[in-house]
Design a protein that fits this description.
Layout lengths: L1 H93 L4 H8 L11 H5 L1
Length: 123
């Protein structure tokens, strides 16, 4: 009988230590899981911040590229207008017409001085 009581005491002690070990195991697993999640959230935040920073850099490069192309287009338009005006004035003074001026006159885009109505000439 003493053996049974000793065995029963050990069994209860084992059950108590088993439940204590379960609690300790759950605590360790929870702590480790929290640690892993926290470190992954921090690294995800760093990746997100780096992504947003890269996006701002790409937008800035895009704006710069658009500004360069816009300036180039404005230069082309200004040069084309200058050539057109030069040809128009040359044709008005010499009486000869360049092909571009003749085509513009046909389309009604320009009027040379000698084509102006009489009321415009009197002024």
């Amino acid at each position: 009988m003493a053996r049974r009581q000793a065995f029963a005491g050990r069994e209860r002690g084992f059950e108590r230590s088993k439940s204590e070990m379960m609690v300790l195991g759950i605590l360790v697993v929870g702590f480790a899981g929290g640690w892993v999640i926290r470190s992954s959230v921090d690294s995800s935040r760093g990746i997100a911040v780096a992504g947003v920073s890269a996006l701002y850099g790409a937008l800035e490069r895009g704006r710069r590229l658009i500004a360069i192309e816009r300036e180039h287009l404005e230069d082309l338009v200004a040069e084309g207008r200058t050539r057109y005006e030069t040809a128009r004035l040359r044709a008005a003074h010499t009486g000869t017409k360049d092909r571009s001026v003749a085509k513009a006159e046909e389309n009604g885009q320009i009027r040379l001085q000698h084509d102006a109505p009489q009321r415009d000439r009197a002024a």
